[in-house]
Amino acid sequence: MPSRAVSFAPGTDSPSQALKSKGQHTSSKATRNDNHRELRHSMHHKIVVVRQVDFMEFFVPVTLQSQSKRRKPRRTVFNKLRNFQNESQMYHDIPSRLNKEKCYCNGYRLVATPHKGDQAVGSTLAPDCGFYPADHAPATDKKQPYGRTDWSYLEIPVECKRDPSVDPFEKNTPCGEPLSEARKSCLGQILSYSELLFLNQHRMFHFLILFLGHYARIIRIDRSGMFATERFDYVEEEDKLTEFLWRYSCLSPEQRGHDPTVERIDPAHPLAKAMREKVAEARRNAQPDAGPAADTDAQPTDGEACPADANSHPADAAPRANTADASAETRDDDDDDDDDDDDDGDDADSDNDDDNDDNDDNDEVLPEPQQASHDGNYITDLFEASLDEKRPWWRLEVHDELTGTIQSFVAGKPHFQAPGVRGRGTRGYVALPLRSDGTLGDHFVYLKDAWRVKHPAIQKEGTTLKHLNDNDIEYIPTLLCHGDLPSQVTESPERWKQLHPNTPCPLKEHQHYRIVVKEVGKPLSHFKNSIQLVSALFHCVLAHQGAFEAGFIHRDISAGNILLYYNEETGLWQGILTDWELAKDVTKTEVRQPERTGTWQFMSAHVQDDPGRVVVIPDELESIFHVFIFYAIRFLPHNLHDQEVGRFLHNYFDDYAANVAGTRCGAAKRNAVENGCISLKAYNPKLTVYNTILKFTWPCATSSDDTAQNPPDYSHPLNDLMKTLLSWFQAHYSLDAQVPEQPATVDHPTRAVSALRASDDPRRRSSRARSQPRHSAQAHDTKSPPNPSTNPSAISATETAQAPSTLNVQTGPSRQMTDATGKAELAHNLHVHEPMACLLYDVIQTAHWPEDDKFEDKRPKKGFAPKDDPIPSGSWHPPENFAQDADIAGYVIPPAEWQPVEQPVETDMGPESEDEGEEEEDAEEADEVDSGHESANEDEWMVIPAEEESSRVSDEWMVTDMSDAEDEQAVERLLFEDLRDGSSSGGVGAVAPAHPVSRPSTPEASSQMSRKRYREAEEPTTPTKRSKY
Global pTM? Predict the structure, then answer.
């Protein structure tokens, strides 16, 4: 994987969005060090170091209370403070001295919490100390001097470093950003504390104190950036610290950064009881026999493409392996042997010791609800899961712009919350309305809380949704209320402008904002089978088409923004395209933000290659295709080996190519759209003509052991669909060097495009003639209509009757269409929505679909972690049919009881052995690895490099003087050792005999010869000598 060096697109202030290691859809395993790195990158050019007096004037005002009760500063708090020999002394001395001076920390208590993370949050991260309200401070005593971190009540995190040289702010660099690794690590560490504080409280901003031996800094962080004071000696200049603490203790909650529009609900409060009773009431009102389960033959209404099967849900079924893969095995996650952090948080991030620990994933999503008998009950399940007694519950206000009123809602812990410090900080809640009389409403809603970018050209999400709702655009959320929260704008940009009046401000201004919609969806990963997945994407295309015709383009299509929603009016499931926050008016060409727009994993290759690119329709349709691949490769049967799914997801979605200008599209995604196929040559262990490119298979009941007699059935309709779409993308990208892309597609739709909704909508197609997508070869068989009796997820008969009898959608360029004109015509299918919508509709309508082809998720649970050494020492096990394969290859199989003889090795191991020895924890293990490089006499052996013949192997190899009689024995032994170590197939320095090896005629003779020869091989050999090749 490329280096994660800091790199930014020219003319932008945005770090590479490819570095998103903790996103909801990231398949790669991220370490804590990765998280620190990303947090630092997000603050690039967003750090400001100011004088302490300016800091106090900007952010810690003098209040009437602080003036009336002010006491004269005394230089006694840190008088005769010892020079710290370790951080443990700081954990004791600093809290004990400050807690004695209650006049400075009025109402607060400083508690040392260096080793115990918050169990309720599930993170082992723990700041060294923290200021808490006195009545909510973690308990400590003489036996347990350290408390347990409580992120929900922590007021000011405090970090202690004994050595001032790890100060995260450089004195002579722009913005004070660190250069050394130790300083960078410290900055990432304090930002990780800030991240957890924002995730577990409703804060507009917060303060943090950093102690560096006898020095200190006071830091303020909000969603735009961070301000820090210059470093000061708090022993000699004690009043700088005590003045801050005194002023802070006199501030109101809002002045300390707490959101005044949010109120924490005590679990014993009557409102909390009403929330629990609402869940019980919803359970009682649920009718087990209602819904689509009561009538499996019920036909969906016009406009519905994915009827629900209320009797079952993929999460209910027992997990099954991907039986379609001939070599499928039970998936063994690479990380199963890793020890999880203990509950006590003893491995908490202190200093730099835990930079490579597993990342604490704060990108929280509630667990998938257990499906009840009625499909609509998944919303009740989500709300009940949010009522976690260990986490805070909330009453939230929404200042509605539509009615000019303040509406209140109640919710438990977030259903979703995005990680990070700077940015929107989006979180979502399954909520209930709170009436003015204190009673709860009857219907669950979805409340989204975010810090939107405040820019004149960026429209509020609610304003966009209202416009789309007024235009009757289907398959999008229904707006209920929305509005900005008063006086909640990030302050850092304004203060930066005061300090730099004649310089453009690099900090974005963020406005706190809430929006409530009617629909509560569930993740697209809950789809029942492949036809429901394709149907949801079909609805997404229709929603995007309708929005574009109404004047808006989405610009952030991702797996998380396409949901499944149960429509109680129709009793059917449908796809819904959500999160219109980044949507843009297509009639406006102003560049609003100088950075990439969207979610990295699902951006088109064009957008990933050009951070300033204007997003157009082909980019959005390509994002929908990537969503399809993301879920299909995880849940559906295909010819990719199960154990390679994690690596494929990492390469296709998370990976990137780095250059001097920033980051670009990864090789896997680029190759797919440019070559018109998804190659599996780098993944499958045994390549055949059937598994070199990705194909989906018809689910079968046979095990993987029977695939030799029952080969996989590649008649799955997804193959033709994927082939067709990839041919369009291939044609689209083939024109890059020939015809410059025209940004005209972002203008208001033309008459032909606008006419689609009136006359050619795929959901309401009539029998009259219409234009066909560009084509060249038949895409799929239309002779096999769906069987409604065996395919309950098929399109309704009503829609089928309204559709044309055939739809001649085709795959890719034929021999007659390989010229530029033919490619342009084929690529034109992506310039408007109709061809893709018709293609999806037609394949849903006419193809044979399996009823139950969803399997367990094959994505590694802990994420994919690339290994430096793909074949670790001691991991070799004889594969199936190893004896037969080795016999055919001319190898002699060693007996089971044979063990290789340790050979004497010289002290000077050479460059390669030294490197390997440094990587091993034990010197003896390194010697065993090195002994595998011993070979025979220079005159009798040939070293064959795996590279070209002209290349030379610079490493030194150990060879021994052997007679001709010992030649054959040494060959057999060395070949076995190479096989055991995984290096038999072409590693650098693979060794081959100068003379052929005689092979016994029968397995019995082979076993006898093996025992005899390996007993002889145990005899001492002559001393070794060196020879270079």
Answer: 0.72
